[in-house]
Amino acid sequence: MFTVINAFRRSSKLINNIYLRRCEVPQACISTGPQQQHGTFYEFRTYNIRPEKNAAFLQLTNEKMGLRTAHSELLGYWSVEYGGVNQVFHIWKYDSFAQRAAVRAALAKDPTWMEEYISKAMPMLTSQDNEVNYLVPWCKLERPPKEGGVYELVAFQMRPGGPAVWGQAFRAAVTCHAAVGYGHLVGAFHSEFGELNKVNALWWYESPDQRAAARHKAHGDARVVAAVRESVTYLKSQRNKLMFPCPGSPLK
What we know:
This protein is α+β, with helices and mostly antiparallel strands. It has two domains: 38-133, Alpha-Beta Plaits; 136-247, 2-Layer Sandwich (Alpha-Beta Plaits). It has helices at residues 2-23, 54-69, 97-108, 111-121, 163-179, 208-218, 222-231, and strands at residues 41-49, 73-82, 87-94, 125-135, 150-158, 184-193, 198-205, 235-245. The protein has an eight-stranded antiparallel barrel, surrounded by four helices. A hairpin with a 4-residue loop joins strand 6 (184-193) and strand 7 (198-205). The longest helix has 22 residues, at 2-23. The radius of gyration is 24 Å and the shape is globular.
């Protein structure tokens, strides 16, 4: 009798262990959102400028940029050369959403900023757009090895599911390009507000021609081809911009 009972108990325990293992939730090693380890985020802002006002807008922004950077940290400010016409792109760093709200409130109450910049700049624009991004956990911001050169922003719209689905494949494709010197990765970012399941990679090159040569060489590299082939199975679309840093940009 006791032998039967003990056998039943062992069998029940084994079944429970199997069930628990099957019910374990896999952890995404590069997830953001609720698993974000700190509050720092980056606001990507894109402004479209009236064609006839492009030069005037860039000049005004260069002259008055100090009024804006007195309130929060600017990572970079660029004029788009390819992939967008009469367009500027800039990245702002915030430690928290509360800090950003406080900055925006202070700017609205800053008479010099409002009178000398906003009142003049806003009529020059046709539209504005923004999105919030986190640095992916495996990436740190890396400044270019020298000033000058050009920047490429590549936006990857991935299939729904988040990093738990496509994170490892995306990381392999990006780091493979960077590891063999086909581009200098400044940062890789994962969207939090804006288009979801979107990843942005910011690259630096010495010149547009150096970028073209590096891309041509990468297309013949079996290591890169294999990594990209895996990543694109999760890709819906991608878009890029080639940009030149403006005079007041910290990233030059």
